Amino acid sequence: MDSIREGAVAICDTLVRAGYRALFAGGCVRDMLLGVSPKDYDIATNARPEEVAGLFARTVPVGAAFGVQLVVLPQAQYEVTTFRKDGPYLDGRHPSCVTFSDEKEDALRRDFTVNALFYDPLSEKLIDYVGGQDDLSSRVIRTVGNPRERFSEDYLRLMRGIRFAARLGYSIEPDTFQAIREMAAQIRHTSAERVRDELIKILTEGGARRAFELMDDTGLLEHVLPEVSRMKGVRQPEEFHPEGDVYIHTMILLDLLKNPTPTLALGALLHDVGKPETFTEEDRIRFNYHDKVGATMAEAICRRLRMSNHETERVSWLVEQHMRLAHTPGMRESKRKRFVREDGFQELIELGKLDCLASHGDLSTIAWIEEYCNNLKPEECRPAPLITGHDLIALGYEPGPDFKAILSSVEDAQLEGTIHSPDEARAFVLRSWPQSAAN
Is the pTM of this model over 0.85? Predict the structure, then answer.
């Protein structure tokens, strides 16, 4: 038994010894039945929040109004939630009130049947009030009860149902699917932060291509990422993209993602987002400056999704730079070294590899870049400065805006291998930057 599960069992044991009912609940039960080790364990109990807090040394009331206590153990942190029945949902996310109830009522308030199972770890007994075990066996995603009611309670469930179906490789029960189609526009009422988190899970947990195809089939894609929806039908030159249009290319690329970082995943999704805006067809199909247009669009999308500044900058950079990889072998040595040492370059190489595999399949340039990077010593890529601004002053140069350009040109020469010592650097400056021009 792994340590995280041991902690969860210990919590249940403590609650039961105190006279309460305590069960594993939700996704951890689903994963256990699928033979997957849960990443975390949620526990449901008939103990009230204050009673839970009284039984453990460290607790945090993360949702006291909803009966949620966070129990902190050395192994992990665990959400312990009191069995409850939800009142009406008036805002598309939160119940207006909750009433503490029993385990059956608690199961009936949950989103999908496969997520509404309980498991008693002490008696090792599965408890199923909603037919979730049958749906797991049949590989079906179905809401608990009326799908329109479940989705009205929390519109993010429209995306969650698709994520579960795609990740697990399940079908969506017809009435549940139809309800998603009918209510797709309601996703606009969900906060950008929650949509962002769900998108990141879709892109990184597996099954990303199928999830986006399901979002397209249900109409969700147009409301969540209309920029991706507009890729459909945008033709590409067959000699470079025999696979088809921009949307098909992007879907194939998503299918190739394997445990990507969120920024790589978003960079992959949006790398050609500028193509619909830059499509021209004169002598042949072209997408002039689609990388730069796409970078601006990617930044706007990330801002809309409330991504962090660092993530936004990385995704935009990946989109803007992905076409430069093809020119790397022909770059000047100094320019190439500056390029490959940029933060995020390893993600860019992976994006380039996926881009090639999703189109023409020629990885020769990527292989060249990887070999070049493997043979490049750190000191060759980031050499110690040969001179500083103080050295320029000592040579008689007046401090000013030219200092940055002078020092950059010295580093370029250093990266090119044409100068190797401080004396050579000073001679280079005096030769290349006459003081009358620099002052």
Answer: yes
